[in-house]
Amino acid sequence: MGLTNEEHQLAQSCGIEPMRGSGSYVFVDNRKVVERINEKYRGIVEIMDINDALKKYDGLKEYYWKLVDPNKNEFTKMAIKPDGGYFIRVFKNQCLELPLESCIILHRGREQHLHNIVIAEEGSSVTIMSGCTAHNSLIDGLHVGVSEFFVGKNATVNFTMVHNWNETTVVRPITAIKVEEGGTYISNYLCMKSAKDIKTAPHANCSKNSKAIFNTVLYGKKDSLIDIGEEIELNGDNSVGEINSRAILEADSKIITRGKIIGASKSKGHIECRGIVLSDEAELRSIPEIDAKNSGVDLSHEAAIGKIAEKELLYLMSRGLDKDKATSLIVSGFLNMPMPGVPEWVKVEISGK
Amino acid sequence: MLTIKNLYVSTPENKIIRGLDLELKPGEIMTVFGPNGSGKSTLLKAIAGIPNYTVKGEITLNGKDLLKLPIEKRAKLGIVLGFQQPTEITGIKLRKLLEICSGHEEFTEDEKHLIAKLNMADFLDRDINVHFSGGEKKRAEILQLLFMKPKVLLLDEPDSGVDIESLKIIASELQDYISRTQAAAVLVTHQGVILNYIKSDRGCVLVEGKFACHEEPKKIFELITKQGYGSCIKCEHSDHGKKN
Q1: In contact, B16 and B10? CB cutoff 8 Å
Q2: Do A203 and A299 share a domain, yes or no?
Q3: Candidates A248, A302, A318, A327, partner chain B, best to mutate (most B CBs within 10 A)
């Protein structure tokens, strides 16, 4: 059974066009509905359902559950026998100039438990666009997604994920990344719509001369609870870690940002958490943590939470904007931090807030 | 055009403007001098409608009462303020602000020409005033004001921090706009050099919240350069002593 018109529209609502890009994977409820590779990229990249990959590659012994402990918590245990998930492998020294696109949809099924594996082999380069969404009619959905990223030597993975859940969905992504020598992993995560409860703590382990960057843009609406805690472990000399977050909160929303960088080598890391709280009922907690375990580390953090700056408001109003429009423009500007590899539609999504 | 009568402007701590009158005619550029803290910027902000001040008296534009209007409505009417210290705003491009100022997204040929003349083409896709030099901020400020097609320009030290070449361009564009449109301007300056490139027939000194020494601006500048601001209060043309 393929993608229905309604499901196609759901994919588009989080910016994913299933027949675009170098390859696609779409998963609805508990079934894979799209799995394709653009002809041009055959032999350059593999994309298939995780359960097919487990059969094809004899259980993916080098990768499956190697970065995440299946017994870590109740949610990882739910994904021990996954309903599905994507397996992506970019072959050695291959570069995909077009992004791979994936979309995970909760439509009628209340729960889904996925396991994704991404392997970028030595010298390869890939951009992955991932959209996750739930149908408005779905009540009390649960999405559990385990993701393991293997970024090979001198390889680059640019992973952009847009979460577009509904107000009753509970979301538990469990993500771990291994970045080999000279590799680069960039995560751009955007959550601009309401969700009941999102909690995630992606963990990156960096080898010599490698880099991990997490950019996160969060818009807390209604009574959403979002708890994001990226952690980067700098285990190799000259490795670099960056965690940047921007959060806007309105209504009764609550956001916690907990960036942590551990410097266990001659490495450099920086955490920047910034937030604007628009409502007296909202709550934003920022907990940056830097942990030095080597005399050659250079770690720093800065966190700032505040309201809209009055002088910025007045400046824009002096150019003819009323207060609401000036506020909206400042908010969109605040969220519009540099995010490499993020496509134009995502920027439009942000600037529309 | 712009009429101010018996204006008082204060904060909870200070009485800044104390009974000031001003009549500004179309095409007229009035230069205001004054020592630091004399209330020059406050006067311009009060006319523009910046809140946080208690304003009493009368400010009208062609008979329309401005005091009842918020800042953005005064801006829409054509009362525009060029800030002494333009605000930096991260994440919003100068191009976007210029679109707001002009009221349209596609710049006209005249607007493109103005951007080029003020050497601001390379700044359009940068965040507003972020990492701009002092002179670049002032050029960006003039660009915004002229895109708004104002009736009254309130220019708070458009020459401070500006190199002489940029100053000539800024003054030339302001003068050209005012001559073409018969807009009026209140020009606050400490430097006086801008008066070599812009035609201002009226000047005055703001001291202790009132105008003193109504004179030809270059003469005032010579006087305060030689004798300081103290002599202005004693000047026969001073408003000081007329009323309190």
Answers
A1: yes
A2: yes
A3: A318
**Of A270, A286, A307, which marks where a domain is finished?**
A307
How many domains are contained in chain A? 2
Task: Check whether residue A15 and residue A78 sit in a common domain.
Answer: yes
What count of other Cβ atoms lies within 10 Å of the Cβ of residue A278? 15
Distance of alpha carbon B122 from the chain centroid: 25
Report angle CA B199, B205, B208 to the nearest 5 degrees: 155
> Which chain A residues touch B149 with a CB distance below 8 Å?
none
Task: List chain B pLDDT tens, one digit each, 244 residues.
Answer: 999 999 999 999 999 999 999 999 999 999 999 998 899 999 999 999 999 899 999 999 999 999 999 999 999 999 999 999 999 999 999 999 999 999 999 999 999 999 999 999 999 999 999 999 999 999 999 999 999 999 999 999 999 989 999 999 999 999 999 999 999 999 999 888 899 999 998 999 998 888 887 889 999 998 888 888 877 666 655 665 554 4
Contact of B69 with chain A, judged by CB distance below 8 Å, is answered with no
Q: Which of B48, B92, B148 has the CB atom closest to A333's CB atom?
A: B92
Which of A320, A330, A337 is nearest residue B148 as measured by Cβ atoms? Answer: A320
ipTM: 0.94
Q: How far apart are CA A193 and CA A168, in angstroms?
A: 12
- Nearest-by-CA chain B residue for A329: B92
Are residues A152 and A39 located together in one domain of the fold? yes
Which residue segment(s) compose the domain that A170 sits in? 5-307
Is A324 found in the same domain as A302? no
Phi-psi category of residue A306: left, alpha or beta, with phi > 0 → left and psi -120 to 50 → alpha: beta
